[in-house]
Design brief:
Chain A contains 21 helices and four strands. Chain A is mainly alpha-helical. In chain A, α4 packs parallel to α7 and α8 packs antiparallel against α12. The chains are: A mainly alpha, B alpha+beta.
């Protein structure tokens, strides 16, 4: 090539400026408002898109280079994991149930995040945020792929993971994460970015990925810790995008403040509710525990989000009110959720169990104000009953919250002995909620949330049976039919861990791996 | 003053990075967890390219941090030579 170069390499700031300022143009064949029809519909006012600044200033060449290196490292480890029967190195086969919840509940969200950011990036007329969304869209599809590849090594040996995508769209508890993302992706582009980029990535993913993945390392799961940290190395960039979008919106126009505050309030609560599943995974599903849910909450929410909201106070942003409720609930939600899954263990695609006496002592020490008083007696009773051959399975379908879709299992913030019920009437129909905050979200957008696909309602309406079954037949078993429709194999995927195929196989294979038999 | 933090994987590549961060930020605290470290610092934390290069004995591009980064908190200011995390309040 004859092109002359100056010999001097461009600095980070210059390279980034060329990519995000030089590559955009004003359309002439069609007006910009027709090309970008969504970025004004939410009432957000943007005066100068050029003010968008990605602090990482990552350019495409650097992006591809570092992402490919991350992939090479990850896949080398996945190969080693498969070649060395890495699945037999986990602490205890109970741990694998956390992965079942992960692949059915979380990985499909990564795919939705990919779709959401691809869509949102297309809808923003500024090049800076468009590029940032594009990179995040590519990251997210990488996450779902690496998670499927890693966990497929467990699917070869254990039950419950064979049809995760089918289950994600149908199974009752998976409607909680599914509806969270569907809610975000069906909002406008800025609400989507605040929901996912800010509330989910910045405020909450630390709680999902950091202590949990460190926990995977602690439990000997080399594959999961590697995909987790590989994904998390992208999350640091996503969090930055999340914080950047908030600052950008607030600096553009004072009229954006109330809109952004409302989104922050709404999505912080939506996220807090969804994290109930993570709370339970940390306190009950990791045989070796790094820290309790409460400790993780104190570090990553109270300290970190506290610092963040103090920083954003200069724009007039205040800490969402729902945080007071979340703080009151932090000693309770993991126990309440696990108690619910234990009762409904016949309808879940993973195994459940009661904690061992030592594990209960650990829970008492981590939750001195709540565990012994409210949860231990019930758990010990269930443990005794199971040992006596009376394992309790609840067959009455629970009432669900119209907004978060979680069964009504949460207690009143100031009374852990009383289930919290809220209700409202809209267009002549009654709707139920788990909390004041879920009720307020519904009341603000009733037309949206009245359409919620609530698994329990759908089961009662007869929409969750395999095609061709006759619900009027004398021997019809509705719950068995629902499990068939979910693709949950009765006796293999569900019920107690004690006595499960997974438990027997793991013991036998580990024995074969350590002795000459 | 609020705390900022950065969490990195523990591996061979991050050892000199962690060492450089702790040397350049005497107010920073190291918290070790399985497979990772979290470095917390009051107010702000700055990572200098030069310090890492000195320990590493080769050129280092601060964007290589992306390979090992787990999470961080604070407003970011990144140039070719420095990477700073800070809170306004």
């Amino acid at each position: 090539m004859d092109m002359k170069t100056s010999g001097r390499k461009l600095g980070l700031k210059e390279k980034y400026a060329h990519m995000t300022r030089g590559l955009g143009w004003e359309t002439t064949y069609q007006p910009m408002d027709k090309v970008f029809p969504y970025d004004k519909m939410e009432g957000i006012k943007i005066h100068d898109w050029e003010k968008w600044e990605d602090p990482f200033r990552l350019t495409m060449d650097a992006y591809w280079k570092y992402q490919s290196e991350k992939e090479r490292k990850l896949y080398a480890i996945i190969d080693a994991f498969a070649q060395n029967n890495g699945h037999l190195n986990v602490t205890d086969a109970r741990y694998i149930n956390a992965l079942k919840l992960f692949i059915t509940g979380v990985s499909p969200l990564e795919y939705m995040a990919h779709r959401g950011f691809a869509h949102t990036g297309r809808q923003l007329r500024g090049v800076g945020p468009r590029v940032a969304c594009q990179m995040q869209a590519i990251d997210e599809i990488r996450h779902v792929q690496t998670q499927i590849h890693t966990i497929s090594n467990y699917n070869k040996f254990y039950n419950g993971m064979h049809d995760f995508r089918h289950m994600h769209d149908r199974v009752w508890y998976l409607s909680v994460p599914k509806s969270f993302f569907d809610d975000a992706i069906s909002a406008g582009p800025f609400e989507f970015m605040v929901a996912i980029g800010f509330s989910f990535e910045y405020v909450l993913t630390n709680l999902l990925f950091v202590p949990f993945m460190s926990g995977a390392a602690f439990n000997g799961d080399m594959g999961t810790v590697t995909f987790g940290f590989s994904a998390q190395s992208d999350e640091a960039r996503h969090m930055t995008l999340g914080l950047e979008v908030i600052k950008f919106l607030l600096e553009q126009d004072p009229d954006n403040l109330p809109i952004v505050q409302k989104w922050i309030d709404k999505w912080t609560w939506r996220g807090v509710r969804m994290l109930t599943l993570v709370a339970m995974m940390m306190d009950y599903m990791l045989p070796k525990r790094v820290m309790s849910w409460r400790e993780a909450w104190d570090i990553y929410f109270e300290q970190n989000a506290g610092a963040l909201f103090k920083d954003l106070a200069r724009y007039g942003i205040t800490m969402p009110k729902c945080v007071e409720t979340a703080i009151k609930e932090k000693d309770h939600i993991s126990h309440q959720a696990w108690a619910t899954f234990y009762q409904y263990g016949a309808a879940a695609a993973f195994h459940t169990w009661m904690p061992t006496p030592e594990e209960m002592d650990w829970l008492s020490s981590k939750y001195p104000d709540s565990f012994d008083r409210y949860y231990r007696p019930r758990f010990e009773y269930w443990r005794e009953q199971e040992a006596a051959g009376n394992r309790f399975y609840n067959k009455t379908l629970p009432m669900l919250c119209q907004t978060c879709q979680i069964p009504m299992l949460f207690t009143e913030p100031d009374d852990p002995t009383k289930i919290a019920y809220r209700e409202t009437t809209y267009k002549g129909e009654k709707y139920h909620f788990c909390s004041d905050h879920c009720q307020h979200i519904f009341e603000d957008e009733s037309e949206k949330y009245m359409q919620s696909w609530l698994p329990v309602h759908q089961i009662y309406q007869g929409n969750c049976f395999p095609e061709g079954v006759d619900p009027t037949a004398p021997d019809f078993d509705p719950l068995a039919a629902v499990l068939q429709w979910y693709h949950i194999q009765f006796g293999a995927d569900n019920l107690s861990f004690e006595g499960s195929e997974d438990q027997k196989n793991f013991e036998q294979w580990r024995g074969m791996a350590t002795q000459n038999v | 003053m609020s705390k900022v933090f950065i969490a990195l994987q523990t591996n061979d590549d991050t050892r000199p990075i962690i060492e450089a961060i702790l040397a350049d930020n005497p107010h920073a605290e190291l918290n070790e967890a399985p497979a990772m470290v979290k470095i917390d610092a009051e107010g702000s934390l700055t990572i200098h390219r030069n310090s890492i290069e000195e320990l590493l004995g080769r050129d280092f591009n601060l964007q290589e941090l992306h390979l090992h980064l787990i999470t961080l908190s604070g407003n970011i200011d990144e140039t070719d030579d420095e990477f700073t995390l800070s809170w306004a309040n």
